[in-house]
Amino acid sequence: MPLDAKKIAEIYQSKVAVGYDFSMGHFFPVYKKRAFEESSLKPGDRVLVFCCGTGADFGPILEKIGPQGLLVGVDFSGLMLAQAAKKVEQNRWENVELVEADVTDFAYTGGASFDIGVCTLGLSIIPDYRRAYANLLAHIKKSGELIIGDMQLATGWKSIFNPWTLLMAKKFGGTPEGHQNAQDLVQQMAKDLVEVKKREFFLGAYFYLVGTLR
């Protein structure tokens, strides 16, 4: 399946979205949490989460920023956000705002007022991923931090597992083009960020990157 915005929208307005936590909840949380632990997240920080989906990242982020911080989650899927809203209500998180919007043109009234920008498992399925990435950066304060996690195609001997990676990701909109976009984005982030830390897991199929804006 080529990277197509209409098809991606159809996927995340279907039963895939409803069962997302059940399908994906066993694979990535431990690695995402490592990224947040390796970041500079601290009490009182304002955090913007693009492609927040069902709010799977909210818990470990809120543990770091505390009740005095702010988390704004943005996603285009109302079905995904409905599940995120349930998490917010069940956990009685009072410092979370959910916004249904396209991350390529989302605009927060406070402008570049966030300390940390986060996007995990999102940019590789967005056709105009560079615009989404640039928009996330535009909302982060100078010397703020960026935390990105996504799928990629492994290199070297690990590339023998790439067909499995593509098969697993296809249901969620993953494509060879999207995984290549993620690798291209890593190169761009190396130019835009300093003190960059990149870690790889699942035999190179998943990575996270933490860095500070120049």
Describe the secondary structure blueprint for this structure.
Layout: H1 5-11, H2 15-18, H3 20-24, H4 29-38, E1 46-50, H5 58-65, E2 70-75, H6 78-91, E3 96-100, E4 114-120, H7 129-138, E5 140-151, H8 162-170, H9 176-192, E6 193-201, E7 206-213
Parallel strand pairs: 1-2, 1-4, 2-3, 4-5
Antiparallel strand pairs: 5-7, 6-7
The biggest beta sheet is recorded as: 7 strands, mixed
Q: What's the Cα radius of gyration?
A: 16 Å
What pattern of helices and strands is seen along the backbone? HHHHEHEHEEHEHHEE
Query: Structural class, judged by helices and strands?
Result: alpha/beta
CATH topology: Rossmann fold
User: Looking across the biggest beta sheet, what order are the strands in?
Assistant: 3-2-1-4-5-7-6
Query: Could you say how many structural domains there are in total?
Result: 1
- Indicate the CATH class: Alpha Beta
Q: What is the arithmetic mean of pLDDT?
A: 93
Q: What is the CATH architecture descriptor? A: 3-Layer(aba) Sandwich
Number of helical segments with 4 or more residues: 9
- How many DSSP-defined strands? 7
Instruction: Tell me what portion of residues adopts beta-strand conformation.
Output: 15-25%
Q: Could you please describe the fold and organization of this structure?
A:
By secondary structure, the protein is of the alpha/beta class. The chain has one domain (5-213): 3-Layer(aba) Sandwich (Rossmann fold), CATH 3.40.50.150. The protein is built from nine helices and seven strands; from the N terminus they run H-H-H-H-E-H-E-H-E-E-H-E-H-H-E-E. A seven-stranded mixed β-sheet has the order 3-2-1-4-5-7-6, with helices on both faces. Strand 2 (70-75), helix 6 and strand 3 form a beta-alpha-beta unit. The protein is globular.
